[in-house]
Write a structure and sequence with these properties.
Pfam families: Lant_dehydr_N. It comes from Nonomuraea phyllanthi. This is Lantibiotic dehydratase N-terminal domain-containing protein. It is a single chain. The chain is of the alpha+beta class and 81 residues long. It contains 2 helices and 4 strands; from the N terminus they run αββββα. A hairpin with a 2-residue loop joins strand 2 and strand 3. The model has no long low-confidence stretch (mean pLDDT 70).
């Protein structure tokens, strides 16, 4: 007969890792890029797209969006009756 493996050392580590997000794609040095693409096989998403911003990059975005949307939002409400 063959050997029997009990996997005693693997039990708790497998249970403890359930529910944690693991990124199956290893992008290597590309992990330093600001954008990593989504990877899928058929209809299954293997790794979601990621955007990585440096600290302070998004500062003031809310004000910029409000300034840009202001005239558009006002024009849409003025013409609607």
């Amino acid at each position: 007969m063959g050997e029997v493996s009990t996997c005693e050392g693997d039990g708790p580590s497998r249970i403890g890792s359930q529910g944690r997000r693991r990124d199956p794609a290893d992008f290597g040095a590309a992990n330093l890029l600001p954008h990593l693409p989504r990877i899928r096989h058929g209809r299954t998403v293997l790794s979601p797209a990621r955007w990585i911003f440096a600290a302070g990059t998004a500062a003031g975005v809310g004000e910029d969006l409000a300034r840009l949307a202001g005239p558009v939002a006002g024009a849409a409400h003025d013409g609607a009756a």
